[in-house]
Amino acid sequence: MEETNQTNVNYFILLGFSTSAELQILLFALFGLVYLLTLMENLIIIVVVWVNNNLHKPMYFFLCNLSFLEVWYVTVIVPKMLTDILVQDKRITFQGCLTQLYFFVTFVCSEYILLAVMAYDRYLAICYPLRYPAIMSSHFCAQLSAGCWTCGLITSAIKLSFIGRLKYCRIEKINHYFCDISPLLNISCTDSSMAELADFILALIVIMVPLCIVIMSYILIISTVLKIPSAQGRKKAFSTCSSHLTVVVLFYSTTLFTYAQPKAMYAYNSNKLVSVLYTIVVPLLNPMIYCLRNKEVKNALRKTLGTSLGGRYPQGTSTNGDSSTLVLQLFWISAPRMSDHWSKCLSLLASQTTGISEFVISNLSLSLNL
């Protein structure tokens, strides 16, 4: 191949959803509404946990991590997608494409590991209830949370160090609505076998190891619960796991095959539809699942939106207002307490992640310059 053909492109064109103008407007309205609902749901969960002392438990600390993660998870993808639906110029710079990919992979990998941590937390709570408070201390919770984010950041940096070496011989159209691994591997004009191998090995580690932890945790949980003599006791034990297990099934079922063989998945037209499920639909459903299937969260939500608002919201507002008013009230009552609750966990989390930013920036810079 000639030397001129080995130069990198300056930008890609994201084809997105090829539909009529009327359908594009409908998609913009639909995805925009889903995005706003996803942000609102996850922020409400964070606020509700913050302002309710009875939710200051490891299980809900990890739930807040999941909600915080998914706020950024959808924000990396959806705003750019909504812009591309409305405008004719669907270009994204090469550096912008890799940056979007880097953060998206970071959040996906972190969520895989976080779901495994949450399964381990449920295993300890059910199988070792007496030792659970001592084991799952605030320090250990902060370490586990920091470990999830660290693994996600490092995995993404390694993936991009290989993908950033690939060359793209001309202005390429990406048949997708965001920069994902599969299109970048497919449109490269150089040998991508090493990048594919690295991606496969990392996917095997980041996906299958947490999945095995989840499966083993639930096998042990089920065996322990079945030994409980009363039906009510068994039902109560299972109820604490049902929402998490539902989220695990949704997330893994929509991402497992896509990232096990990313290059092969690009050949199928259903790739974008599957991507919509795990980038847009699943983040919307997760908060609903935790609220609808978890009695503690439902009771705390009712309390926060009801009696606990008395005297804590601005004058002239009512607890019987519309949804936007309720959200404002939640933030109003949480603001003076945010600096108090879980400050120890947050400081520990910060101490555990010292130096990660420098590592990420150096690796991302390496990928972009290669």
UniProtKB/TrEMBL annotation:
<dbReference type="GO" id="GO:0005549">
    <property type="term" value="F:odorant binding"/>
</dbReference>
<keyword id="KW-0807">Transducer</keyword>
<keyword id="KW-0716">Sensory transduction</keyword>
<keyword id="KW-0297">G-protein coupled receptor</keyword>
<keyword id="KW-0675">Receptor</keyword>
<dbReference type="InterPro" id="IPR000276">
    <property type="entry name" value="GPCR_Rhodpsn"/>
</dbReference>
<feature type="transmembrane region" description="Helical">
    <location>
        <begin position="60"/>
        <end position="81"/>
    </location>
</feature>
<protein>
    <recommendedName>
        <fullName>Olfactory receptor</fullName>
    </recommendedName>
</protein>
<dbReference type="InterPro" id="IPR000725">
    <property type="entry name" value="Olfact_rcpt"/>
</dbReference>
<dbReference type="GO" id="GO:0004930">
    <property type="term" value="F:G protein-coupled receptor activity"/>
</dbReference>
<feature type="transmembrane region" description="Helical">
    <location>
        <begin position="101"/>
        <end position="120"/>
    </location>
</feature>
<dbReference type="GO" id="GO:0005886">
    <property type="term" value="C:plasma membrane"/>
</dbReference>
<keyword id="KW-1133">Transmembrane helix</keyword>
<keyword id="KW-0552">Olfaction</keyword>
<feature type="domain" description="G-protein coupled receptors family 1 profile">
    <location>
        <begin position="41"/>
        <end position="290"/>
    </location>
</feature>
<keyword id="KW-1003">Cell membrane</keyword>
<comment type="similarity">
    <text>Belongs to the G-protein coupled receptor 1 family.</text>
</comment>
<feature type="transmembrane region" description="Helical">
    <location>
        <begin position="238"/>
        <end position="261"/>
    </location>
</feature>
<dbReference type="InterPro" id="IPR050516">
    <property type="entry name" value="Olfactory_GPCR"/>
</dbReference>
<keyword id="KW-0472">Membrane</keyword>
<dbReference type="InterPro" id="IPR017452">
    <property type="entry name" value="GPCR_Rhodpsn_7TM"/>
</dbReference>
<dbReference type="Pfam" id="PF13853">
    <property type="entry name" value="7tm_4"/>
</dbReference>
<dbReference type="GO" id="GO:0004984">
    <property type="term" value="F:olfactory receptor activity"/>
</dbReference>
<feature type="transmembrane region" description="Helical">
    <location>
        <begin position="200"/>
        <end position="226"/>
    </location>
</feature>
<keyword id="KW-0812">Transmembrane</keyword>
<feature type="transmembrane region" description="Helical">
    <location>
        <begin position="273"/>
        <end position="292"/>
    </location>
</feature>
<feature type="transmembrane region" description="Helical">
    <location>
        <begin position="25"/>
        <end position="51"/>
    </location>
</feature>
